[in-house]
Amino acid sequence: MTDRIADDPPSASLAQGTVIRSGSMEGFRGLLLELGAEPSPILNRAGLDDETLNKPDRKIPTEAYRRALNLAADASRTRHFGLLLSQRQTFEKLGAVGYLVRHAPNLQISIDRLIAHFRTHDTGSMTRLERDGALALWKHGLAGVGNDPAIQQTELAIGLACKFVRSALGDTWHPDCVYFEHGAPADIAPYQAVFRCPVLFGQALTALEFPAADLDRPLRLSDAGLFAILEDHVARIGEGLGEDWTNRVRQTVRDNIEDGMIRIDDISRALGVKKHVLQRKLKAEGANFQSILDDMRFEIARRFLRETTLPIAQIAGILGYAESAVFTRAFARRAAMSPREWRAAHSVR
């Protein structure tokens, strides 16, 4: 495991390579108007036009999408704007993938298919399901987060995931617990109202926790015939996107970094290819593993520093550094200031 962060800044923001379907902004206009804010100026400031909301299959930069959510929260003076928006959205906003997962035989297969095909909707988000005995964790992560806070985008994703399971299994369903990496807001009542369970902030992961037995429950709208047709259709869409090994490595690093699996041997194994094959594929795309790892560690470090109150030593451990001093030196080479100084200048209040 390497403790190096490259001295040179990344050649381009990781966010420039990630896109999301504009269907992710379902309900955006209506919620803003209800909260007394005008959508058009917000979209324009985010680099989007009004037609974005009318064309759900249009691909827009994830960076612009994230900025629009942040500007909307500020303009409406609603700290939990993303959470509110999640409850106005449907999984059909994901396009063909959304219809596919609603008709799966059970929740396990539904989430597995979502993970497998999610990049047809969003190339910058990562979702992962883990079973640990009687418990299941549905984790959420982001790749390509630049300087804009990702709190609104994260809360929207987790709120929508909860709403999806509730709509699939029954209106009385709720998780056992919800975890967020970012710090707690002043008022957590809206979160408790949505999730109907304990909601913990400042954690080392963002996830829904629920009984693993729920994964075996059939979905209310399950349709085997329609599921088979949609699965074939979504697979063809995925083939049309190409391989994009650079982004796949970014996402796999983000998925595995908290488990300490960030060597190229670990990542190539997770992707199901030999190390030399992965190196060759990355080289063909003008990338290399070390640069991707350096960028991801720096990106994740900034996000934790900006959005959480986790101690510096704990962040260093999450990123795979043997000592916090090594992390501090590596971060300072990239940011021209220590992690503590960077947090003081950039943390979300």
Fold and architecture overview:
The protein has 349 residues and is an alpha+beta fold. The chain has 16 helices and seven strands. It has a five-stranded mixed β-sheet with strand order 3-4-7-5-6, sandwiched between helices. A two-stranded antiparallel sheet has the order 1-2. Strand 3 and strand 4 form a beta hairpin. Helix 5 runs antiparallel to helix 9 and helix 10 crosses helix 11. It is globular, with a radius of gyration of 20 Å. The N terminus is likely disordered.
* Contiguous helical run count: 16
Shape: globular
Outline the low-pLDDT stretches: 1-16
Largest sheet: 5 strands, mixed
- Structural class computed from helices and strand pairing: alpha+beta
Looking across the biggest beta sheet, what order are the strands in?
3-4-7-5-6
Number of strands: 7
- Multimeric state: single chain
How do the helices and strands line up, and which of them pair or pack?
Layout: E1 19-21, H1 28-34, H2 39-45, E2 59-61, H3 62-76, H4 81-86, H5 96-102, H6 107-117, E3 125-132, E4 135-142, H7 151-169, E5 177-179, H8 189-195, E6 199-200, E7 207-211, H9 224-239, H10 245-256, H11 264-271, H12 275-284, H13 289-307, H14 312-318, H15 324-335, H16 339-346
Parallel strand pairs: 5-6
Antiparallel strand pairs: 1-2, 3-4, 4-7, 5-7
